[in-house]
Amino acid sequence: MNESGREPLGPFALYFLRPTWISGDPGPTHMTEVAWEGMGLRDVPIKALRDGCIIFEFDKATEYAGGEVPAYTLPENRRIPSNVTKAEADRTKLVVKQL
């Protein structure tokens, strides 16, 4: 939780389906080694692993707090609870905030 009192939007990772190798020589012992780290827009830390996995750590950027959607069981009326739809809408606003 941060100064806003809201839970942060969790990390997001991309993994390329095409063979991708970031920096250095390929090798099985270094597949998940961090090859590059940097800061993205809005102070979102980014890590690139040698095997091509890129991780955006939204949970470490205070501007992206509030993205957690609670778990729920679908009631008999099959309607998603209003607190969940509101949380989903808030998360969508965070995701498209700076697009």
What keywords describe this structure?
alpha+beta; single chain; elongated; 4 strands; 99 residues; 1 helix
SSE topology sketch:
Layout: E1 12-15, E2 34-39, E3 45-49, E4 53-56, H1 82-95
Antiparallel strand pairs: 1-4, 2-3, 3-4
Give an account of the 3D structure.
A four-stranded antiparallel sheet has the order 1-4-3-2, with no helix packed on it. The chain has one domain. The chain has one helix spanning 82-95; strands at residues 12-15, 34-39, 45-49, 53-56. It has 99 residues and is of the alpha+beta class. It is elongated.
Structural class: alpha+beta
Instruction: Give the C-alpha Rg.
Output: 17 Å
Query: How much strand content do the residues show?
Result: 15-25%
Report the uncertain regions: none
Question: How many strand units?
Answer: 4
- The H/E string reads EEEEH
Task: Supply the number of structural domains.
Answer: 1
Helix content class = 10-25%
Q: What summary fits the major beta sheet? A: 4 strands, antiparallel
Distance between the termini: 24 Å
Overall pLDDT metric: 76
Question: Overall 3D geometry?
Answer: elongated
Quick summary:
With 99 residues, this protein is α+β, with helices and mostly antiparallel strands.
